[in-house]
Structure formats: structure tokens, C-alpha cells
Specification:
With about 290 residues, the protein is α/β, with parallel strands linked by helices. It has one domain. The protein has twelve helices and six strands. Strands 5-4-1-2-3-6 form a six-stranded mixed β-sheet, sandwiched between helices. A hairpin with a 6-residue loop joins strand 1 and strand 2. The protein is globular and about 55 Å long. The N terminus and C terminus are likely disordered.
Length: about 290
């Protein structure tokens, strides 16, 4: 395992690939979004969420977060282990508020609706397994949503995405070029060449993303529609961090996935029957907030 100092340096140097050094390029990414998922394996809902900040701010944040881990005698922070100790979770959340974190981002994805749609539209085969993977869609949507909205939020540089999910890397990376090319040119310029995957034990911002993803999912499962908007944390919020949140229910999926399945290179599918799916506008509940 790398030392905290090295991990913090690599947060700064992720884009160039040289720890501690900034890439000498006008395309250097100064903004970084660290993202984690909550609900992997849950048949009902998946949440992908995290935070955006400047690379140098993440380096300072990492040092402060690691100091708190050491003080608490913890190897790493996992929100699902803190459910009976909210005071500890609140102690770590204050670190997020104490640093210049620019935005909280989140995406709720209807896993059950996705599987039901794919089963209806395709003949079962090994290839349809990828089409049922909500992580692929949710990862795409959180990146696209931020690219389309970030300038309204005052975020004008391209954003580098760092995910905590080595298991999904083999599925997401080979299809990245297809995803990026499918975006409008004005949006594509804000999306970096390929996401990065890192271990949350070494990269402290991924542990903060775990905290936010867990709460976004809890609010959704509890029917708390204003959880994200009001930051309904039990210890209270002391700073109003900008938030971008979207929810994708089955109605929205049916309007989006037919075209995606026809063009997506990850699977060749055979429709069960020759009938179209009516295209609809996104459900009003699937809104962006910032």
C-alpha cells in the first residue's frame, strides 16, 4: 500500500501520470471528480455519486482526511460501517465542508426497471449480461450530466473522473470512445479521454464519495425526495455545496435505451419481436439540481 504522502501526490499528478507533477499541456485537467457506487448487487437501485474539486485541493483534503483516520484508529472510512456511529461519519463529513469542494454529484438508477426492459426487448444470451449492468449506464450518465451542466455551475475546465471500481474497468473502458463520440461536440470537449480507476484505501477522496453515495441511496430508498436538495444529514450541514442530482426510472430508461442498444458495441442483441418502444421525454422527477 502506498503512503499517504504518495497517494496525495498522485491525486495531484493523476492526469500526467507522474506523481507530484502537473502535465505541461493546455489540456491538463485541473478538476477531478472522485466517484463511488452504492447498491452494487442490489436488484432494485444503484447510486453513483461523488465530489468535484481542483486537483491541488484534493491533495490537501487527502492529508486532512488521513489525519482523521489515524486519530480514529481506522484503516479507511466506509459509510456502511458507520450506520450506528453517525457522530464519526459527521466528524469525517466536516472535512469535506472544510475544503474547497466545488460540487456534489449523484445519479440514481432503476436497476429493476433496466433488467425488466432488457428481458422484454432481447433474447437471453451471454451478450445481454452487459446490457443489464446498471453501472455502465449510471457511469455514463453522471459524466454526461456534469459535462452538460458544469459551466452553469461555474466549472469551466475539463473534468477527470476517478472511479473506485476496478471490477468494472474491463467493461467501461473498451466502450469509452463510443460514449465520448456520441456526445455533442460542445459537451465532448469537457469529457476527458478515459476514466481512471483507483483503490479507495490509497485515495482518500474516494472515501468521501462513498459517504455521499451511501446517503443519496438511503434518501431514495426511504422516499425522502428532498434529501439531496436539503442535505438531510443527521449531523446537519454547515456549508451549502452545489449539487447536481438526477434520477432515472423505468419510464426514462425506455425512452433512452432502445437507441443505445441498437448502437452500443458491447453486445449484439436479437429483438424478441419487431415492435417499437414509444420514445418519451424524461420523467419530470429526473431533474438536475445545482
Amino acid at each position: 500500500m502506498m503512503t499517504p504522502a504518495v497517494a496525495a501526490a498522485q491525486v495531484w499528478g493523476l492526469v500526467s501520470g507522474i506523481p507530484g507533477q502537473r502535465a505541461a499541456s493546455r489540456w491538463m485537467v485541473m478538476l477531478q471528480a472522485f466517484v463511488d457506487a452504492s447498491g452494487k448487487g442490489d436488484p432494485n437501485v444503484l447510486v453513483v455519486a461523488g465530489y468535484v474539486a481542483q486537483a491541488d485541493e484534493w491533495a490537501k483534503f487527502s492529508q486532512a482526511w488521513k489525519e482523521k483516520l489515524d486519530q480514529a484508529g481506522m484503516r479507511r472510512f466506509k459509510m456502511n460501517e458507520m450506520t450506528r456511529r453517525p457522530e464519526i461519519a459527521g466528524y469525517f463529513y466536516r472535512t469535506i465542508e472544510e475544503h474547497d469542494i466545488l460540487a456534489a454529484i449523484s445519479c440514481v438508477f432503476d436497476t429493476r426497471g433496466l433488467v425488466r426492459f432488457v428481458d422484454e426487448f432481447t433474447t437471453p444470451s451471454a451478450a445481454t449480461h452487459n446490457l443489464k449492468n446498471p453501472y455502465l449506464y449510471a457511469s455514463r450518465q453522471i459524466i454526461e450530466n456534469l459535462a452538460m451542466t458544469q459551466e452553469k455551475m461555474g466549472l469551466h475546465e475539463p473534468i477527470d473522473f476517478i472511479f473506485d471500481d476496478e471490477a468494472e474497468k474491463a467493461r467501461l473502458v473498451p466502450n469509452w470512445d463510443w460514449f465520448r463520440e456520441s456526445l455533442r461536440p460542445e459537451v465532448r470537449r469537457l469529457v476527458c479521454n478515459c476514466p481512471i480507476f483507483r483503490n479507495d484505501e490509497d485515495f482518500m477522496p474516494l472515501q468521501a464519495a462513498d459517504l455521499w453515495a451511501w446517503w443519496v441511496r438511503k434518501w431514495f430508498m426511504d422516499g425522502n425526495e428532498n434529501g439531496v436538495a436539503n442535505i438531510n444529514l443527521p449531523w446537519g450541514a454547515q456549508r451549502d455545496i452545489k449539487r447536481l442530482h438526477s434520477t432515472y426510472d423505468e419510464a426514462f430508461l425506455r425512452s433512452m435505451l432502445q437507441e443505445s442498444m441498437q448502437n452500443m458495441p458491447i453486445a449484439q442483441h436479437q429483438p424478441k419481436r419487431d415492435r417499437g418502444i414509444k420514445m418519451t421525454l424524461p420523467d419530470p422527477s429526473s431533474s438536475w439540481r445545482y
